Amino acid sequence: MIEIVAMSAPSMTLFHNPASPFVRKVMVLLHETGQTNRVALQASQLTPVSPDLALNEDNPLGKIPALRLADGNVLYDSRVILDYLDHQHVGNPLIPRDGSARWRRLTLASLADGIMDAAVMVRYEVALRTPEKHWDEWLDSQRDKIRRALALLEADAIAELTSHFDVAAISVACALGYLDLRHPDLEWRKENPKLAEWYFEVSQRPSMIATMPKV
Predict the structure, then answer these.
(1) Per residue in 142-173, pLDDT tens?
(2) Of 17, 110, 179, 190, which has the maximum CB count within 10 A?
(3) φ, ψ for residue 92 (rounded to 5)?
(4) 34, exposed or middle or buried, with CB in 10 Å at 0-12, 13-18, 19+?
């Protein structure tokens, strides 16, 4: 059982866009660990060609999420932020601290991050460039990455994902949610029925409902 650390006012600021699966990972962890009241959200609207100048001052890479701490230091990317926040609550850790479980869960989380990376790249290519300028071979390559990663999760990871809603499960759930949001044409459930069943269950968690993008 995770115990909530009471805070009177937000002590950190998160550069935030609800459509970002990387931001959503952080938000889900905040909900799961009872830390949402510790973080103020600063909206960040950006694309690769339309930077957020305020964000650039805190993260020279211009990427979200970025977390400004009370002392003014800034953490990025999502993996670093998740690790930091997982050390700030008094409940059971969502990232194993040591042993083989740590490396396995982080590897699954990285696989999910790779799905997100590929899906975001496809989104940018399709949304920001006119059809005649699309690099179709590159788009196919990114979609193939997504399919291979999903196939691995379907074949090898369902039991592990079901056992704990931790960093691995959070990351995979947010990746699948982003596919539903931006790439329904992939119809990922057809080839991955066990993963689809797992996702249906975890998508009912309060943390997943609260962080579901409204766009």
Answers:
(1) 999 999 999 999 999 999 999 999 999 999 99
(2) 179
(3) -65, 135
(4) middle
Q: Which of 30, 58, 86 corresponds to the end of one domain?
A: 86
Query: Distance between CA atoms of 36 and 43, rounded to whole angstroms?
Result: 15
> For residues 7 and 37, is the Cβ–Cβ distance under 8 A?
yes
User: Does the predicted TM-score (pTM) go above 0.90?
Assistant: yes
Write out pLDDT tens, residues 61-81.
Answer: 999 999 999 999 999 999 999
- Residue 191: phi and psi, rounded to 5, are -95, -5
| CATH number of residue 200's parent domain | 1.20.1050.10
Other CB atoms within a 10 A radius of the CB of residue 74 amount to: 17
For residue 74, what are the β-bridge partners? 68
167 and 109 Cβ atoms separated by less than 8 Å:
yes
Full domain range(s) for residue 24: 12-86
What's the confidence (pLDDT) of residue 47? 77
